[in-house]
Amino acid sequence: MSKALKVTPDFPVGLEVSWSPEDDVWLPNPYLKNWLSDTGSLTERVQSLCRQFTLVKLGQGSAPLHASECARLPGPADSYQVREVLLCADDTPWVYARSVIPQTLIDDELANLGAEPLGKRIFNDSRFIRSAFELCEVPPVTVARLNMDITRPLWGRRSKFSLHDQHMLVAEVFLPGAPVYNEGYHHD
């Protein structure tokens, strides 16, 4: 467990927020905008900025889907699994990620994912096509179940990845310890 976590959160944490198309969201900070609109692998970006990268798997399995997730994904909600993780840089959680993945992908292309970052699989497989981003501002109460001291709104993004007729949602929220909120951040 990361030093910054008081207690490992219960699964599922959830992420019930309002999402807007990226073009409809005004961001006052160009540095934050750069992070939110980066189409590369977020896992690789975090890894490049720290000495030690760790993934804390909060859980994976059947969990209720939010209305906005059901609206973006075809088929019945029970044909999906939810996977929630923290991406940590030097023992500090930088990103909370919630992925909604079809059971068929888990049984096939994403089998035996375990504690491996999802991004490592999907960014190394050119068959996955990414949609445009949606952004959200996350009130502290929404992520209170992360058991962190969060006192200000956070920012998140999500996109849909498609492989033929299978679709999954990947949502990422930048936590207070992430450099996205600090324009002057430079890693030693």
TrEMBL record:
Protein's name in the database: Probable chorismate pyruvate-lyase
EC id: 4.1.3.40
Keyword DNA-binding: no
A Pfam family per the record: Chor_lyase
Keywords attached to this entry: Cytoplasm, Lyase, Pyruvate, Ubiquinone biosynthesis
Pathway in which this enzyme or protein is active: Cofactor biosynthesis; ubiquinone biosynthesis
Class of the enzyme per the UniProt entry, highest EC level: lyase
Annotated gene: ubiC
Places the protein is found: Cytoplasm
UniProt GO molecular function: chorismate lyase activity
Catalytic activity: chorismate = 4-hydroxybenzoate + pyruvate
Keyword Cytoplasm part of the UniProt annotation: yes
Subcellular location, principal: cytoplasm
Family: Belongs to the UbiC family.
Function: Removes the pyruvyl group from chorismate, with concomitant aromatization of the ring, to provide 4-hydroxybenzoate (4HB) for the ubiquinone pathway.
Binding residues for substrate: 83, 118, 172
